[in-house]
Write a structure and sequence with these properties.
The chain has a single domain, classed as Cytochrome P450 (Cytochrome p450, Orthogonal Bundle). The strands form 5 sheets. The chain has a 5-stranded mixed β-sheet with strand order 1-2-10-7-3. Helices cover about 50% and strands about 10% of the residues. It is globular, with a radius of gyration of 21 Å. It is an alpha+beta fold. Pathway: Steroid metabolism; cholesterol degradation. It comes from Mycolicibacterium chitae (Mycobacterium chitae). This is Steroid C26-monooxygenase.
């Protein structure tokens, strides 16, 4: 067993977990994560302005933690934030005005709230939505033809396509889509100078959340007075034990669906195309055998890992891989590391459109498995099924750029040159 004293000597490699700039540099990030998996899979990280935590980098350990949602809970610290932001959110939650999405909740409340939107992401609902998704996929491939032969695939295509899908599902008017896009970028881009609001301070983040809440408060009032049969109406009128959800739970539900529901898919789509461009043998293989598309989509999701981490807090003294972890201490679940774990994936740094099995953890695991996973898969399948048969050639037209982030992110610019029919 590793002694507590030894375990708490923070390694330099472990600091990448709390360094937003590391996620914009794949070589640096994966070099450190590979070292951690081999040498210090449970690592103590003390890196202000964040409170200390244990970094968990092995696939099996992350699955074990996510399975036991009584020992490891989300509520106190569901994701890594600066201490100042954690304190501000906690104060707001205690006052009944703070963001409290599904990722902040634990059972039984998490289970009850999740049920309200679950039917909208089940297989029947996905089949009903597929016509709209296919229409939007064709619209955006046609858009590539219109603006070609060059574009920034992220800003011109990958951002807008899943945004239109998720906001159509919610039933929001198209004239509001740009506003939702800007707020989402500001919320997830707090560590990135290009996307953050103001200086990216805690006050700036709180202002973004307030803007979200103002918009969705008006939407809730409208949908309660006049339900319209969309997901927004289901959320506005959702009940638990016969009572409407609290205002904050309702508003938080909108925020997580409207923001995470498109931003993560944008990252998987752009990361997937980037991988195909940089692995032309795999692009040719997929074009030659489109029946591989389901496996290819899973590989794109593994490769890009849009959600970098969630956190859990121990409800009792325990240990992970022989390292003692005290009650009240938090662990950081590194999905990026788990998705390159050599013990789980053959040649994990090889992009393989036919990879099977593919036990990636990009959607999480256990009770918090991503509610919108089926929708994300369908959107990606529809877009690449429309794009690849029409694609004559494609190459990079500049250097890809990644977001600085520690939570959700991926490519923020993917300049490409292409020929499309």
């Amino acid at each position: 067993m590793t002694s507590p004293t030894t375990a708490r000597q923070a390694s330099e490699q472990g600091r990448v977990l709390a360094d937003p700039t590391a996620y914009a540099d794949n070589h640096r990030l994966h070099e450190a994560l590979t070292w951690l998996r081999a040498n210090e899979p449970v690592t103590w990280v003390d890196s202000p302005p964040y409170r200390p935590f244990w970094g968990i980098t092995k696939h099996a350990d992350i699955m074990d933690i996510e399975r036991d949602n009584e020992l490891w809970i989300s509520g106190p610290r569901p994701l890594l934030l600066p201490a100042e932001a954690e304190d501000a959110i906690k104060r707001d939650q205690e006052a009944g005005i703070g963001l409290r999405t599904l990722i902040h909740m634990d059972d039984p409340h998490h289970r009850d709230v999740r049920k309200i939107g679950a039917d909208w992401f089940r297989p029947k609902a996905m089949r009903d939505l597929k016509v709209r998704v296919d229409e939007l996929a064709k619209r955006y491939v046609d858009r590539m033809v219109e603006i070609g032969p060059e574009c920034d695939f992220v800003t011109d295509i990958a951002i807008n396509y899943p945004l239109y899908v998720i906001l159509s599902l919610l039933g929001l008017p198209e004239e509001d889509f740009p506003r939702m896009l800007k707020l989402t970028q500001e919320m997830f881009g707090g560590e990135d100078a290009e996307h953050q609001r103001g200086e990216g301070t805690t006050e700036d983040l709180m202002a973004v959340l307030l803007d979200f809440f103002t918009y969705f408060s008006a939407l809730t009032k409208s949908r309660r007075e006049n339900p319209t049969g969309d997901l927004a109406s289901a959320i506005a009128n959702g009940t638990i034990n016969g009572e409407l959800m609290s205002d904050m739970d309702t508003l938080s539900y909108y925020v997580i669906v409207a923001s995470a529901g498109h931003d993560t898919t944008k990252d998987a789509i752009s990361g997937g195309l980037g991988a195909l461009i940089q692995n032309p043998d795999q692009l040719a293989r997929l074009k030659g055998d489109m029946s591989l598309m389901p496996q290819a989509v899973e590989e794109m999701i593994r490769w890009s890992t849009p959600v970098k981490e969630f956190m859990r807090t121990a409800t009792a003294d325990t240990e992970v891989r022989g390292v003692p972890i005290a009650k009240g201490e938090s662990v950081y679940l590194s999905y990026v590391s788990a998705n390159r774990d050599e013990e789980i994936f053959d040649d994990p740094f090889t992009f393989d459109v036919g990879r099977d099995p593919n036990k990636h953890l990009s959607f999480g695991y256990g009770v918090h498995f991503c509610l919108g996973a089926a929708l994300a898969r369908m959107e990606m399948n529809s877009l690449f099924t429309e794009l690849l048969p029409r694609l004559d050639s494609i190459e990079l037209a500049g250097e890809p750029e990644y977001s600085a982030t520690i939570f959700v992110g991926g490519l923020k610019h993917l300049p490409i040159r292409y020929s499309l029919r």
